[in-house]
Amino acid sequence: MKPEIKEFKDEEQLHEEIRHLKEKGLSSDHMYIVGYDEAQSKRIAEAASANTIGVDEVGLAQAVENLFQDRAQTLRSNLKELGFTEDETLHYEKMASEGKILLLLMDAASGAKVE
Description:
Layout: E1 4-8, H1 11-23, E2 31-34, H2 38-47, H3 55-58, H4 60-66, H5 71-81, H6 86-97, E3 101-105
Helix pairs in contact: 4-5, 5-6
């Protein structure tokens, strides 16, 4: 099952949603931050005690391939590996390139839904 995903305009909204989800019982182990700027994504994830997408989520082959791609290609490839369609990957890559921050919930079966 592909992750649930939500777009945020700024970090404050994202942090508020993460606090809300944690209060509902969702572990930060299941929360992943995706943005167009990789350094920013890592910084936000660290501040929110969340994660970024890596080898464990997309596999070694995709992680190595990502080393030779630009950021847009990497975002689309990672999202495709996680079960998103080509149209969805293009949509979310466009949102990230426009400065949106994406929150992926990797364990939808946990009962916590993005609202």
